[in-house]
Amino acid sequence: MTEEQKEELWLKNKTRLLKESTEYQEALQQFKMKSGADWLLFAIPVVAGIVFMNTVGIKPEWLLWVCTVAVAVIVFAVCVFVKCLSITGRMPTEIERDIKKKYLESLKE
Predict the structure, then answer these.
(1) Which pTM does this prediction carry?
(2) Which of 3, 27, 70, 77 has its CA 20 to 30 A from that of 63?
C-alpha cells in the first residue's frame, strides 16, 4: 500500500476515529465556553476597545476606528493565548497526530 493510499484511507476514516477517541473528545471539551471567565474572552477586548477609543485623542475618526479595532483584535489574541495556557493535558492536535500514527501503523500490518 502506497503512502498516498494510506493518507486517503486516513482522510476517509479520520472523523470516525476521532469521534471514537475519548481522550480527543475530552480535549475538545476544554475549548468550549463553560464559565463566566470564558465569556470574558469576548468582553475584555470590547472594554479595551472602548477605553482606548475614549482615552486616545486621534483626530481623524476613521483612523481612531481602525486603531480601536486593531487594539481589540490584539487584546482578543492575548486573551485566547492566556486561555490556551490555562488548558491542562494534551492539545487536540497532538492527540490527532498520535491517532493518525497508530492508524497508519495498523495499516502496515
Answers:
(1) 0.63
(2) 77
